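# step 3/5: fold
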Amino acid sequence: MTMYLKSFAPWLAYALAAAIGDWRTGAAAGVATGVVLIATRRAGHGVDLLTTVTVVFLGVIGVLAVWRPHSPLRGYMAALSLGTLALAAGLSLWLRRPFTLSIARRTTPEALWAHPVFIRTNEVITAVWAASFAVTALACAALSRTHGASWPVVATQVTGFLVPAAFTRRYPDRVRRQFAAATA
């Protein structure tokens, strides 16, 4: 699971810096973290779509936050962020490059990267993340409208990450067991 933390590091940097400062410092911290991730990619490992979309989104938010620091969009950052993640995950599926592939490849032997079961497993996992991001974005938008930046929004965000994370942790083991039983 810690390999997923690295992929979401720009979002975590945004959240921490925004909590300490405001959304301007959050956006700057998120962009800086994303740029560091991009710059430190190992040779042969391209920049993944999730990181690229994250840096672009936080860059745009940073410009908006400096230009209009009291924009009403500020209150909807949880929903906007999760909506952006949902779009990125969906786009990665549409492009047939599920965003979880780049994460899973960090711990999977290269000989398995092109295996149809490995690819299908990551398509399913990415679809679960995309659905969770989308549902959580909608829930956060509704809660932000009625409650502002409150504990229900934070609890919803956390749940929106924990549910697909738990699925991601369990699903590959289930696939391995099914594959082993089918080939035995």
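# step 4/5: annotate
The mean pLDDT is 90.
# step 5/5: archive (pending)
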